[in-house]
Amino acid sequence: MKAMILNSFGGPDSFELSDVPRPVPGAGQVLVQVYATSINPLDYQVRRGDYADLVALPTISGHDVSGVVAEVGPGVTAFAPGDEVWYTTQIFDGSGSYAEYHVASQNIIGKKPSALSHLEAASLSLAGGTAWEALTVRASLKVGESILIHGGAGGVGHLAIQLAKAIGARVFTTVRETNFEFARSMGADVVIDYEKEDYVEAINRETDGRGVDVIFDTIGGDTLSRSPDALAQLGRVVSIVDITQPQNLIQAWGKNASYHFVFTRQNRGKLDELSVLIERGQLRPHVGAVYSLQDLGLAHARLESPNNGLRGKIAIAVTPSQQPTAVASTAGEQHGL
Fold first, then answer.
1. pLDDT category, 330, cuts 50, 70, 90?
2. b/e per residue, 56-93, with b = 16+ CB within 10 A?
3. Which of 12, 98, 106, 182 could make a disulfide contact with 297, Cβ separation 3.0–4.6 Å?
4. With a threshold of 0.85, does the pTM exceed it?
5. Pairing outcome for strands 146-150 and 15-19
6. Angle CA(172)–CA(275)–CA(184) in degrees, nearest 5?
């Protein structure tokens, strides 16, 4: 099978397209033909060596799979060949999604929602699961509460907006002015141009000084230390960014605030919960661009660029069925297809 191999940590050109043996499913495992995958910040962090102590080279990286079951191992009862499935791979196990086939435990695999294409499903599994855990499990966002979502046009942010609206919250988000209409189309109630306005001042103006119940951080920087100034009493801050610099959280004490740090966990239950919202029409990923597997490096470079002009996710078409005629319904760009 074809796979993009990471032989050394480094830049986007570190991947090499290679022929490698097709994996064989063991007991309780499923062999999936990968139709599509996608790019996340975690992927370029792995590639450049941020987690070098956890990743043994050479490796196949990548963390999103949407495809079709090709074969099942002994003891598998939940899936059969021909089933359309989606899932997030196990992190740092050396067997990722940048390949034509992938083996995974049946316990982390879900039935792909029929309402989504493979490109869309691959764009949702990791990002959607992260947003779900952040908002529903860690922040315990409730009906009638308010939330500030930083980076509402991004891969996780645009999904978090939709989840928060499905829960019944009032949603504030920070985006560039060029993404105002996109954020509103996702369900945002109040959009803040972070390039022209201080979000703390905007939140306090819009809430008459009360602040929001939850702040969801997808951008890092000084968000942890500044959040209490925009937070209501007993508010919660949830971050998915691995921030290395120390930050002073003394202001959080006065707000009785709680902080949560999320690194996604894999399980079928989370996918099934997301599927309910998808089938109801309350959640759908936006595919902002589509690249071919051989142009994976270009996709990494695009996402890693601070001014990439992207909305939503970058999807990777792995099989011929995901070529231009199959992705014509997506709103994004197509590259190398």
1. very low
2. eeebbbbbbbbbbbbbbbeebeebeeebbbbbbbebbe
3. 12
4. yes
5. unpaired
6. 25
Classify strands 313-317 and 29-39 as parallel, antiparallel or unpaired: antiparallel
Length of the chain: 337
Categorize the per-residue pLDDT at 199 as very low, low, confident or very high, splitting at 50, 70 and 90: very high
Residues 60 and 23: their CA atoms lie apart, in Å, by: 12
Measured in Å, how far apart are the chain's first and last C-alpha atoms?
19
Q: Write the burial class of residue 97 (CB in 10 Å: 0-12 exposed, 13-18 middle, 19+ buried).
A: buried
Tokens of 81: 């060949």
Predicted confidence at residue 308, as pLDDT, reads: 81
Cβ burial 7-21 (10 Å sphere, 16+ → b, else e): eebeebebbeeeeee
Rounded mean pLDDT, 87-115:
94
What is d(CA 35, CA 33) in angstroms, rounded to the nearest whole number?
A: 6
